[in-house]
Design a protein that fits this description.
Elements: E1 3-7, H1 16-30, H2 35-46, H3 52-63, H4 69-83, H5 88-99, E2 102-108, H6 112-122, H7 124-127, E3 130-133, H8 134-137, H9 144-153, E4 163-166, H10 169-178, E5 182-186, E6 200-202, H11 205-218
Parallel strand pairs: 1-2, 1-4, 2-3, 4-5, 5-6
The chain binds magnesium ion.
Length: 224
Amino acid sequence: MQRLALFDLDNTLIDLDAAFLLWAHEFAEEHRLSRKAVDYLVKLDCNGLPHRELFFTKVRERFKLSAPATELWIAYRRRMPHLVECRPEVMAALTELRASGWRVGIVTNGTADNQLGKLQRTGLADVVNGYALSGVEGIRKPDVGLFEIAARRCGMSLTDGGWMVGDHPVADIDGGRAAGLRTVWLDRGTRVGHECSPDHVVSDVIQAADILRDINGRLPKKHR
Ligand SMILES: [Mg+2]
């Protein structure tokens, strides 16, 4: 029996925060901003301005930049795929899951160019069975529809059950549960003031992959 494992991308399979810090340093240098500007950018990011258009509107105002916010945002999306990395052990863990009978997919919110660029440049697009990007499909997690598309791209259906692994309590865990999936939450020490009820809590995606592999190992051979 094949099983479905869906993963979030940002800050689950890749360390987006680390890439953001690199970008912030580059941005400050390019626009001749002070070191303090990097702190400001990181803080603004942490303070929950995930919508980048709004983020860049604020950044533009703060540093009196002449380029329009939409242009700054486009440049960000063009650059980020070059700054993210997927650790080799994470790539290996996904490959191992597939080898042990799992169908592995990625379900992520974000603009099509940025998210697709990250999937392709890290090589993740080649090691999973399928992926669903909100910017392409026009629906966002926690909407069950995006999980459904990801499952289908993996040759599976949500009615078969499966797992969702991610760091966002609402988008990944509430969304995954609503989609009928069991869940593993990556607790990155950041709370968004929302309690979630995952089946497992881990601090690294490798631990999540280990949990899934163990589950498979406990199944009788004919059900794997
Ligand atoms: Mg995430």
